[in-house]
Structure formats: C-alpha cells, structure tokens
Design a protein that fits this description.
Layout (H helix, E strand, L loop, with lengths): L13 H10 L2 E8 L2 E11 L4 E6 L3 H8 L2 E8 L7 E12 L13 H12 L10 E6 L3 E6 L4
Antiparallel strand pairs: 1-2, 1-4, 2-3, 3-6, 4-5, 5-6, 5-7
C-alpha cells in the first residue's frame, strides 16, 4: 500500500482509521463514467482490511465498475474546520458473490454481511432483496486527516 506523504502531522493512526470507518455510515464512491466522474453516497462496512459496499446491480455505479474498477471512496465527518476528519481509500472494486445476491451461503461474505446487518439493521442476519450485490475494495492507498490534531 502507498504511504501517505502529505499531512503526516494530521494523519490518523491505523486504530483511528478503523474507528472512523466503524462509526460512520455513509461513504461517497467516485467512479469513472463515459461522460465524466460519477459520485454517489453508499452505505459500507470495514473489516479491518477491506471496504465492503452493497450496491444495486442496475445502477450507473455498477456499470462504471464493470468497465473500470478503479475508484476513490471518501468517508468524512465534522462541521467546523477544526473538527474535520476523514479517510480516502483508493483501489479497484471487485464483485464478490452472486450478482444480485441471494441467500445462498457464501463463506467469502459471512463477515461483511454480519457487519452490515449489525451496523444498519441491528441484527445478525442479512436481508436479500434481489437487487443488490457486494463489492470489495482492498485499498492500494489510504489517505487520512484529522484537523483536531492541529
């Protein structure tokens, strides 16, 4: 993974990154469309090594990723300048499992589905609607900032 070069003084530690990614609920996913960049909000979970996105398979985002999996994902929070903190993750998104996802057991999805169900539904079982599937981002670069450290 590439090392963050700029802003080392305000960079988050790995534990701080894990905490922010566990706490925040919405990320912004930037893909490349034929007409230019495409930016969308999406729920996510972080398993400590990869960011997991549960995306509608009939979306512009899914079409973009099938054509070019390179993405940037932003998770940030804060209102005033001295409260701003965030994480940008870059890499290639890969589809994992059925698309769309069914309730067929898949050991590769056991952890992200449990994390997702707990984070967004407060339960251990995932609900399958026949419209969504999983995308995994194993970041090649992570950039972070926490202006509270200034």
């Amino acid at each position: 993974m590439s090392e963050q070069r700029r802003g080392r003084r305000i960079a988050m530690t790995p534990a701080e990154i894990d905490a922010l990614l566990a706490e925040e609920r919405t990320c912004r996913v930037a893909t490349s469309s034929p007409g230019g960049p495409h930016l969308t909000p999406l729920w996510f979970v972080w398993d400590g090594a990869a960011l997991w996105l549960n995306s509608t398979v009939k979306s512009q985002r899914w079409t973009d990723i099938a054509r070019d999996g390179r993405v940037a994902v932003l998770v940030d929070t804060g209102h005033d300048f001295d409260e701003l903190r965030g994480v940008e993750l870059r890499g290639d998104l890969k589809s994992v499992g059925d698309a769309p996802r069914t309730n067929t057991p898949d050991p590769d999805l056991e952890i992200p589905e449990r994390l997702f169900a707990r984070k967004y539904a407060g339960r251990d079982e995932m609900h399958y609607d026949g419209r969504h599937a999983w995308l995994r981002l194993t970041p090649t670069k992570i950039t972070s900032w926490d202006f509270r450290k200034m």
